[in-house]
């Protein structure tokens, strides 16, 4: 027996195991839908209900463990406690970010379009599309007013390209953004597709219509969430990205 030799802390090991399991649970809630474990809305609900609680438990245990080890000079395990704390803070990253950054308030809408007067219409995709709880019928002036107030920059793309050229470029942009193109009509310069959010894999429906203009063409885009009253700005961000890529 070597006097003064440090021993591994079982407490630190247990806390690290709990942290790893908590991190795995948080990842499953984010990506479980893409793995086919549950529907996107279920994963979102699980995350809302449990993610922060898991993060608080892991972080709290990690801090307690670290404080305990600081008083026990014959125990090893500070690195495990610190790693556990990092995992806990990573789980709590969304709530931490919301506390240190200015919170953006989005209107309770989920249908965004570059043309709020005559929004592009869906033809292939209908209200009975799989998993849909939202209609594809545009909400009218009330929705248009909320969009204009929240996203005044969402406007049609005006291009000097011919309608044929603009259509092909718009189609390429949609594909580059990872949209699944479900229908194309080159003669009418329109196509429809579906897009998925990076986390939880919510499905949103998109339609792009190109119109001939005296000096080129006009490109209108519309993006609609299948579920949820509000979309926390996802559809507007998607259209902004489309506009940015098209104008490059």
Describe what you observe in this structure.
With 248 residues, this protein is α+β, with helices and mostly antiparallel strands. It folds into 2 domains: 7-100; 111-246, 2-Layer Sandwich (Alpha-D-Glucose-1,6-Bisphosphate, Chain A, domain 4). The chain contains 7 helices and 8 strands; from the N terminus they run E-H-H-E-H-H-E-H-E-H-E-E-E-E-H. It is elongated.
Summary of the model, kept short:
With 248 residues, the protein is of the alpha+beta class. Helix content is 46%, strand content 18%.
Helices and strands in order:
Elements lengths: L6 E2 L1 H22 L8 H32 L3 E2 L1 H14 L1 H8 L10 E3 L27 H10 L6 E3 L3 H14 L3 E6 L4 E7 L6 E11 L2 E10 L8 H13 L2
Parallel strand pairs: 1-2
Antiparallel strand pairs: 3-8, 4-8, 5-6, 6-7, 7-8
Mean pLDDT: 94
- Radius of gyration equals 25 Å
Would you list the SSEs in sequence order as H and E?
A: EHHEHHEHEHEEEEH
Q: Which outline best applies? A: elongated
The termini sit apart by 71 Å
Number of strands: 8
| CATH structural architecture of the largest domain | 2-Layer Sandwich
Helix count from the secondary structure assignment? 7
Q: Give the domain tally.
A: 2
Q: In percent terms, what proportion of residues is strand?
A: 15-25%
Helical content class: 40-55%
CATH class of the largest domain: Alpha Beta
The poorly predicted ranges are none
Structural class: alpha+beta
